[in-house]
Amino acid sequence: MRAYVQRFGRNLHGRDIAVGDIHGHFLRLESALAKISFDPRQDRLFSVGDLIDRGPDSIAALEWLSRPWFHAVRGNHEDYAVRYETVDVDNWAINGGAWFQLLSDVQKRQVADAFAALPYAMEIETAAGLVGVVHADCPSVDWQDLATVLMQRRKRVQCIWSRDRITAGDATEVAGVRAVVVGHTPLISPVTLGNVYHIDTGGWTPHGHFSLLNLSTMTVEV
Ligand SMILES: [Mn+2]
């Protein structure tokens, strides 16, 4: 597998945009990107993970990951797929993973391998400083310690599952980084706690929408 933390240099030509949980709703994502005139020739899109499950088109995640301007971290739903040989299938199905059981053995392996290659964290250099992306929460006090901290399995679990910060309203800043962007917990509108931006506004739910966050200005474009 690749490194736990994947680094991206400055985008000198276009925008860097982050999006919350997609959960198989790639057509809705395309509509949201059209609203901001997203230009794949120069803009980049960074996903907080949970590309799959619940929505109608989970398998499209693989095609999206092959696009050079689309990047994602591992969410807890990708982690189900990575662990497909030992996962509690019934529990996963309740959480939207029934589609996976209909795949051939070859497809299952292909999907699991693609998601196993995803990093737990991405860090993007922007004009205003370094911005981090993880699925649920940053498990280290200082972002600069993250690669080391993620060597512990329980910290990787925290990274893709924890709701402690948002549940407690904890506004402690993550040191060593300008901002951290997370998803995992559906909200009516984006919530910023300290320098942690929670952007899953339920674009995959009947009444939610995708929030597209500009990583240079840390403002929501739509
Ligand atoms: Mn999640």
From TrEMBL:
Domain of life from the UniProt record: Bacteria
A Pfam family reported for this protein in Swiss-Prot or TrEMBL: Metallophos
InterPro entries: Ap4A_hydrolase (IPR050126), Calcineurin-like_PHP (IPR004843), Metallo-depent_PP-like (IPR029052), Ser/Thr-sp_prot-phosphatase (IPR006186)
GO biological process: RNA decapping
Domain Serine/threonine specific protein phosphatases span(s) in chain numbering: 73-78
GO CC aspect terms: cytoplasm
GO MF annotation list: bis(5'-nucleosyl)-tetraphosphatase (symmetrical) activity; phosphatase activity
Protein name (record): Serine/threonine protein phosphatase
Organism: Pigmentiphaga aceris
